[in-house]
Structure formats: structure tokens, C-alpha cells
Amino acid sequence: MVVCGDDGLAHRLAAELRHVYGEQVTLVVPASERSVRPPVVGRARAASALLDRMVTAAVGRTGNGGTAGSAGVTAEPPGGVRVMEAPEPSETALAEAGVERADALALVYDDDETNIRAALTARRLNPRLRLVLRLYNRRLGQHIEELLDQAAALAAGGSAGAGFDASTTVLSDADTAAPALAATALTGTSKVLQTGGLLLRAVERPPAQAGVSTDPGLATLALLSPTDGTDPGGDQGPALLPDAATVRAGDDRGTVVLEQVSYAGPALPVGRGVMPWFGSLFSRRLRWSLAGMVGCVVALAVALWLVTGIHPLRAFYLTLLDLFAIDDPAIGESVGRQILQLLSGLVGLLLLPVLLAAVLEALGTFRTAGGLRKPPRGLGGHVVLLGLGKIGTRVLTRLRELNIPVVCVESDPEARGLAVARRLRVPVVLGDVTQDGVLEAAKIHRAHALLAVTSADTTNLEAVLYARAVRPDLRVVLRLYDDDFSTAVYRTLRAAHPLASTRSRSVSHLAAPAFAGAMMGRQILGAFPVERRVLLFAAVEVAGHPQLEGRRVGEAFRAGSWRVLALETDGTLVWDLPDTYVLRNTDRVLLAATRRGLAELLGRRPRTPTA
Asked: 360 and 338 in contact (C-beta within 8 Å)?
């Protein structure tokens, strides 16, 4: 695997590929990036130490006569990862990085043009190369993806052959980080799998207690290592993808189950009464004024009916005529009728300014907000989202897809996400979050979580600290650009509020797993670590796989290697497939597999990761 980039995402991606998927990685970075400390990936802190040693070696070689203007290998430690310095991903640099022999190439520079130019060069050098590009322009990305795939097909002569996978995948930071941010706000974990419109997560559960039933989840993925002293050397390890008999026999061991990330809190109030739009169109005082006028008209009509003895409908009609001053004067009528006519005329005069206020307020509502809603009264259990920029807009869309109530806070009235919030009818508070009263207007004291994803680290941190002062137990998730700063903030907030859920994430931390999965192939959806091992999740076409095609689900299951979890039909997943269901060549299934099992299933050469 070859990774080319100029920021923290490149380092994070290289470490993810090496220490989660066990791949050999070449990292190509500009000379100015040689002093950047690569981030830690999950539990594998040894990865950080390894990359630190690589960077130290890189600095030492550069200081001993290396030139920043030419490509060259600056470090090649024995762990299977090497670092190259190149000012740009030119044809010479890509060739020296081994693109002609590589399985996949990731281009994650911050500049779209640099990534596109390097992708065209790499496709010419190796038509069978899997390409993963980081592009901010999604529409351009779709065209580039089609162009590069077509070039690969033409270079292959129309016959891909077995195991040929020259796919091109275009991703953006915002799209890949949004599901993880949404899941973190709900469950506190960013390790999620997105497929079939669902967010899935792997959850560790303690051994089941006698007589206590637990939710089995969507599937049991693994049995954890024994903790009762029966395996003192730790040689047994976790049992990945166990069969039903093994699960029953291991009732004294913890389990890892697959669960759907969902929201079980209150729904977002949309209004009261038959016409909920009425409440958002007119203010509360104006609604009370209109209700008072209607009450006066009804009272006058009832009084006229009682005084004159005419039919109630005629009494109501005459009252309206008097109200709008279009009835004849009650000359020669009884005194009671004349008094009621005068009172009706007075009410009509009072009604004119109320009607004028209603018209002006309705026009103002349509003109200024055009649908921007204010947080409704009684709202609680919602997510407060700070920032409607590139990341915030994607997070908002994902939260609403999960039917999670959201209140947005944005300081820029021209922000790109306001149109999305208006279309989704999400309440928005316009104002600077650092000013007093803004978070209170978003009902932060009754919120479920706070998501701070503005582009300014200091703004996110200030908002989180202020929210914690209002609600010490509030779950907070803040986006920070720098990995080291993110780790320091997380540790400090956890120490200050040990009972509250705190998550501090950089976009590169959240985006790297999606980029790594795409480099493994379009089938790979993600990976979950289980102690010292890893489970991969893939969407696989049944056709062409004799281990699946024509077999029943129960027969296709191989304990410790792979397991069919769900059947994909029309973009949705069907869970709880019976063991007697026969897999057809037109089916597409979601399966969990070990690294070696998936390599065997897909006909690839398995790789053995270093310790």
C-alpha cells in the first residue's frame, strides 16, 4: 500500500493500514512533514512509537546531506513501513514508491488538483492499481471516478480476470467523518460501520449472569479471552466468529456483539393542534390576541341570540356584519340590540390592528427566515450541533436520517448548511456561540449531547467548557484539527468531569478507517478490533465464490473464518437469515471475516501482521 499526503490524515492512514489490516505501507510526504508525529491508532500505541522512530531517522538522514527537492527514501524500519520524502507526487516519486508493484494507492493531499494529477499518472503506471482519492468537490469526484475506472478497463483489454480489482474510490473528510461524529454523540464511540443506511457498532458485553437474559444483538462476533484464570498465559485469546455450540459453552466469557446505533429519546416536537404550522407562523402574543377576538365575537353572537331570540346562525351572521360595519343601523330596535351593535363595532375597530400585525408578522417570517425554525418549547433530549460548515452540514444530514432531534447554532447567516437546515425544518439559533445566551437559546440545559464541529478549535473548546459549566454531566463531542491537542483536551476534560462522557476527535482520526477500508477494496466496509485481532466486514457478490454460491447460509458459515450476517436487497439489509436459505448467484451479502478468512474467500494472498 502506498499513501501520499501532506497532513495528519496521511500518517493516520498509514498506521491504520499497518496495524489494523497488517499491510505493508510506503508513506510519501513532503519534506516539511518529516517532523510531524504520526497519531496513535486505537489500542496500538506501539504504532506511534514505531512511526516516531521512523521520523527521527528521517530527520537524521535529511540533516546529513539529504535534499528536500528530490524524492528519496528517508526511513525504512523493519516493521514493514517506510517513509519517503517528495515535494509532490510526481511520476518519479510514484515510481520510486513502488506504485507499479503496489496493490493500492491513496492520494490524500489537501489540494484536489494535486490528487487528480497524481491519480492520472498512477493509473498510467499501473492500470491494475486500486485508487483512493481525497476530493472536496463531490461532483467532480464522481466524474473522475468514472474516468479512471474506464481507463483501467480499457488498459485491461476488457478482461479483468480473477482477482482483478482496479477500482477507484473518491472520498471526502466530511462524508467519512460524519457517521462517526453522529454515532459518538449518541453512543460515545466513533468505531462504527455504515451500510444499508444503518450505523452498526461492536459492543463488548460481560459474561451473562445466571437467570438474566440479555439482548443478543444482530450477531455474536466473538468470545473474549477468559478472565477467570483458566488461561493464565493468554494463549487462548478471543474466539472470532464462533458457532452456536461454542457460544453456549462459553457462557462464562465476555462477548462482542453487533448492534445498530439508534436513538431512543423523545422525538422533535413539531407543534401542537391540528395545524402545527400556525405556531411557527405567528408569535405567542399574537395568537393569544386572535384567540381573544374570536372569543369576543362568539360572546356577542350568543348575547344577540339570547336578547333577540333569533336563530343562532342568524345571530352569528348579524354579529359579523356589525363587526365589519356593513349592517344597517339598529334604529327602532330594542335597546339590547343597539348596545350589542355598538359593542360589535368596537370589537371590529380593535380587530383591525390585530389583523395588520398578523399580516406583517407572517410576511416577516417568510422574508427573513423562510422556514428557519426556533427551538420549540419543551424540547429536550436533543443534540445541539455547533457549526453548519462542510463537516456540520454532513453531520446534520446524518443525524436527521437517524431521526435524531437536532438544534443547530451558527454565527454566519450565509453558512452553506442553513439551506439544508431550512429544508429539513431543523431549529436554528443564529448567533456567536461564545456569547452569553446563545447556548441557552438552544436548550443546552435539556440536551442529550453537544457536538462542536466549527472550523475554529478555540471556539469548539470554549463552547464545550461553557456547556459543561451549565451541565456537568452533558455528553460532549468536539472536533479538533490537531491530534496532540485533541488528546490533551480529552484527558483534561475526562479528569475534570470523570462521570461525564467526553470525546475529542480530529477529522483525520475519524476519516482514516474509511480511507483504509477503501484501499483494501470496494468490498471492505470497515474493521473492528477484538483484543489483539481484527474482524473485517465486507459486502460480497455471491457469484464467483464457490464457498457461498448455491450453499445454504448454515453451510456457508465457517467458524473462525467468515459468517454471512445479512442479505442486501434494494439497498436495505435483511437480518436473521434462516440457515436453510440458499444463496443465489444474484445475491449480495454482508459478512464478517478474519483477515485470513477474507483473503481465502476473495482469492487473495493473506498477509501476516507484525506483532
From this structure: no
